[in-house]
Amino acid sequence: MDDPYHIDVMYNWFKYSVSKAPPHVINKKEKRKWKIEYIEPYGRCTIATQDIKEGEVLFVDHPVVTGPKQTSDVICLACYRRLNSWDDYQCSKCGWPLCGPDCEDKGYHPLECNAFAASGYRPRLQDFDEAQYMYEAMLPLRCYSLSKVEPEKWQTLIAMESHNDLRRGTELWDREQTNVVDYLLQRVKLSVDEELIHTITGILDVNCHEVRSNIPGTRDPYLVRGIYPLCAMMSHFCVNNTHHTLMDDMTMVVIASTPIKKGEQMTATYTHILSATTERRKHLRYGKFFDCTCARCSDPTEMGTYFGALRCSQPGCGGNILSTDPLAPTNDAPWACDRCRYKVSAVTVERLNKMIYMELRQAGEEDPIKLETIFKKYQYVLHPQHFHLVGIKHSLSQMYGRVAGYLLPDLSEAQLLRKVNCCRDLLQVLDVLDPGITRLRGLTLYELHAPLLLQANRAFQNTTITKSNFLQQLREVEGYLDRTIYSLKHEPLSSFEGEICKIARNSIQELRKWIQKVETLPETHFLPEKQEVVPGHLSEEDLTLETLLKKLEEQ
Ligand SMILES: [Zn+2]
Ligand SMILES: [Zn+2]
Ligand SMILES: [Zn+2]
Ligand SMILES: [Zn+2]
């Protein structure tokens, strides 16, 4: 068949994924809204064939295979439950740790179980240089086994990019040679070409998604990795237009996070949205083997957010220090002030960011005061929307109200206000860098609603608020809860976000009842409407010319 870019293979995977998906997730009769095209330098891309609305389901993606991460605790290879020890129960056929006999034939375990059983090799802890790497060969072995037992899955997998040419000779390649290739060839005695195993590990390095396993009946999800061919096909952009959600059966559901116009690419982000250009580009270069040149990476201001900018310290300048060439291949272009051209080397900027990073790590996520201290220390060195300051605000937005000693009812007015402002500032950055439907937006809106509701209710109890103002504030909170639900409604109930969505649904019902009640309350429960518009008490000294003239006119 004439399919050099394996486009038909991917269409087949789409059909297969739809057939495997639970009916409530995707309308199986609905036509596909996108097509696959091969475009340099992206490779296979997914392109909208019609205008797509925010929130519309684009596709479901069934995993080709899942398995442990490169470094892992001792887990059950069938259900991914974390195990207490290496030898509580070992599979009667292959000797690997499992929960018990029930798991021997479950999940993807039979793929490696049969290979180990056939080889006669029994795993021993001392065979691994480091215990944390003992599962590194497991997912590659599962992939290889697919070639024998599930040719269609294998065809889909092997059609993916491995970047062997770019990986060869790197530290990563050497580690995989020891932990995967040598292990499988010498211990498990697979008779297979070394290069093919490297191709598999490459496909895994380039394309794997880290996913949360979901173990029914427990609250102990464990991070594993999986191959999702349709997700992996979407091009990377540092501001993207899709959102993916992992269902309990490990199916991925991908929706449009913002509207997508006909002819536009559907895009995803393979790196951390809330890091600055240099960090993102390095991560993509070393982890995914390409140099990102997207609109955000090309713009020294990162779309006007100044996410990596420093404040110029030259007297009276007030400019921002930005990279003079954010796309420089080795990320070493000098940085310069956008007003006075004062220069700082890229190495200095990197050192500063690293130093702050270390301080933040040391401060931890338990004590907001430690973070406030770091914030104060750097607030005049970094742009107010610098990623470290936004990161601190993100942490504070969650710590105030959630950590011991700072639960919501314990917070002072100033701390409540700080929580509110941290949420608002974070949302402002997210509107640009991570627009539309996202988990972080949903969670932040939820964090924002709580202190506002508390403040409004406190003012009502103390009769320091007018009825119209109180109702206005309650409706604002209702709006935030509504947006929380909108942003998180795609998340499975078993996840943290799904749980927050459920709580928000209950809260909004309660709030709507409260608003109805407040509407019927007599004015005597509130501050009189007129009184509030007077800006405090004016003393004799506060008299302005305006008020003086008015007084004279009244006489
Ligand atoms: Zn198990
Ligand atoms: Zn087994
Ligand atoms: Zn980029
Ligand atoms: Zn300057």
TrEMBL record:
- Write one Pfam family the protein is assigned to: SET
Which superkingdom is the protein from?
A: Eukaryota
Entries under SUPFAM superfamilies matching the protein: SET domain
Q: Which GO terms describe its molecular function?
A: N-methyltransferase activity; protein methyltransferase activity; S-adenosylmethionine-dependent methyltransferase activity
Q: Where is the signal peptide?
A: none
Which parts of the sequence belong to the SET domain? Answer: 32-271
Protein known as: SET domain-containing protein
Source organism of this protein record: Cherax quadricarinatus (Australian red claw crayfish)
